[in-house]
């Protein structure tokens, strides 16, 4: 079973063809899970030529982002189905926004629907938050009740499923699961099982268990794949801190302690052997050096500073770019932070807790009010290149980029912007 994982994951060419690498955004924060696209933005002169909004489509409730694979866009919403509000996976045509199919899952029981239809409510009970993963043929959904399902991408038919609570002793955490499944090669990775099986790897095609390991309590953070010192690993952000797990067999490689309070939702960020993490609710941020010992070395820790509530930064040339601060709705800044020291290089306020990604040399930032902003990924100064209002509703999801198009969504609608 270990042979299922293929080497050279760092190149990611084994996951998809080279064409798909350029065109697809196959899971939460992109094909590599690092929030970066190898493409470039063709139209950067938005003042003279505003980007065309190619389509809009209703996406009622939720903070799931859009996954783009083989001409389809996948996301999760909450909908009324037979009198019940359920989490529903949608497949949209990536070119037109037309709904192709939908599959209902567990009940969406967050207790309130704050923030929809423009209501000034930021409590966050707006439905599903995990993002599907897809290789173009299969779609993987990990819902708030920790039901992992594999669907046929063409028609939504169920291929296999695992109930992590029932089969692996999982216990729901506060506000339920918000982490997305991680797709690497022939394996799909999730967290949430009980003692000895907190971390799980399954064969993506058959659903067969590859390995299980760990005795941790998960958080809302999506795990991150990385190759550190030649070792392919999945980094889980648990309530105890960061845990590096060998991708091939589930063996623990290293760990680092990091405080937990209420919720941890931003994913780890990796550059070389350095791993950055952050959490809100008064916790703060830290950077660790992974050095082939059981305990990663803490390089710096900033209590109650540089907090990423749920907005995972991107990394470029030793600098973090992302939305920082905690619950500063409509005000939270986009920052550039030096990874080695945690020093803030520049600040631009007014985004709120949205999210940003990297496309070529530029940042694509989605504000919490639905504005899409293009800015240079330049550590010297903030340089805004364009701005456009794209969607209405509350935007706590992450933008996606595929084939020269920006995809964004809110608690009301999704939009596709053509920037070729």
Structural class: mainly beta
The number of E-state strands comes to: 33
Which whole number gives the mean pLDDT? 92
Gross geometry:
globular
Q: How much helical structure, as a percent, in the residues?
A: under 10%
Supply the number of helical segments. 2
The main sheet orders its strands as: 1-27-28-29-30
* Radius of gyration from CA coordinates: 19 Å
Residue windows where pLDDT falls under 50 for at least 5 positions? 1-21, 111-120
Terminus-to-terminus distance: 42 Å
Strand content: 35-45%
Major β-sheet profile: 5 strands, mixed
Structure description:
The protein is mostly beta strands and 420 residues long. The protein is 3% helix and 43% strand. The chain has helices at residues 18-23, 164-168; strands at residues 36-37, 52-58, 67-69, 72-81, 84-93, 99-107, 133-134, 138-142, 147-152, 158-163, 182-184, 187-191, 199-203, 209-213, 224-228, 231-238, 241-246, 252-257, 269-271, 274-279, 284-289, 297-303, 314-316, 319-323, 334-338, 344-348, 355-359, 362-366, 371-376, 384-389, 400-402, 405-409, 413-418. The protein has a five-stranded mixed beta sheet, with no helix packed on it. A four-stranded antiparallel beta sheet has the order 2-33-32-31, with no helix packed on it. The model is unreliable at 1-21 and 111-120 (pLDDT under 50).
Brief digest:
With 420 residues, the protein is mostly beta strands. It has helices at residues 18-23, 164-168, and strands at 36-37, 52-58, 67-69, 72-81, 84-93, 99-107, 133-134, 138-142, 147-152, 158-163, 182-184, 187-191, 199-203, 209-213, 224-228, 231-238, 241-246, 252-257, 269-271, 274-279, 284-289, 297-303, 314-316, 319-323, 334-338, 344-348, 355-359, 362-366, 371-376, 384-389, 400-402, 405-409, 413-418.
């Amino acid at each position: 079973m270990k042979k299922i994982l293929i080497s050279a994951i760092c190149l990611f060419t084994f996951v998809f063809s080279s064409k798909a690498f350029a065109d697809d955004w196959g899971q939460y924060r992109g094909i590599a899970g690092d929030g970066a696209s190898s493409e470039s933005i063709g139209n950067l002169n938005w003042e003279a030529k505003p980007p065309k909004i190619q389509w809009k489509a209703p996406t009622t409730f939720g903070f799931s982002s859009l996954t783009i694979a083989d001409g389809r866009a996948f996301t999760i919403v909450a909908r009324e189905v037979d009198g019940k509000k359920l989490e529903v996976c949608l497949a949209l045509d990536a070119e037109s926004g037309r709904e192709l199919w939908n599959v209902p899952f567990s009940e969406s029981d967050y207790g309130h629907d704050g923030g929809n239809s423009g209501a000034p409510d930021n409590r966050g009970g707006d439905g599903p938050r995990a993002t599907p993963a897809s290789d173009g043929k299969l779609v993987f959904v990990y819902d708030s009740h920790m039901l992992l399902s594999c669907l046929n991408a063409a028609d939504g038919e169920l291929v296999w499923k695992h109930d992590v609570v029932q089969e692996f002793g999982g216990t729901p955490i506060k506000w339920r699961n918000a982490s997305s499944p991680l797709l690497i090669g022939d394996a799909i990775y999730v967290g949430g099982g009980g003692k000895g099986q907190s971390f799980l790897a399954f064969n993506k095609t058959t659903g067969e268990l590859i390995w299980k390991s760990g005795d941790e309590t998960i958080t809302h953070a999506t795990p991150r794949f990385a190759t550190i010192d030649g070792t392919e690993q999945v980094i889980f952000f648990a309530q105890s801190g960061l845990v590096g797990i060998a991708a091939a067999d589930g063996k623990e490689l290293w760990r680092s302690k990091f405080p937990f309070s209420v919720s941890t939702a931003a994913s780890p960020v990796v550059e070389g052997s350095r791993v950055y993490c952050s959490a809100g609710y008064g916790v703060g941020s830290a950077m660790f050096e992974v050095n082939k010992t059981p305990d990663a070395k803490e390089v710096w820790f900033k209590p109650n500073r540089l907090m990423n509530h749920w907005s995972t930064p991107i990394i470029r040339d030793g600098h973090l770019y992302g939305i920082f601060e905690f619950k500063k709705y409509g005000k939270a800044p986009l920052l550039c932070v030096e990874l080695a020291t945690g020093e803030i290089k520049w600040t631009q306020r007014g985004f709120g807790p949205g999210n940003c990604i990297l496309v070529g040399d530029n940042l694509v930032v989605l504000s919490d009010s639905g504005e899409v902003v293009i800015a240079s990924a330049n550590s010297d100064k903030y340089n805004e290149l364009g701005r456009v209002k794209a969607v209405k509703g509350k935007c706590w999801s992450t933008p996606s980029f595929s084939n020269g198009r920006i995809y964004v969504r809110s608690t009301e609608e999704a939009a596709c912007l053509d920037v070729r």
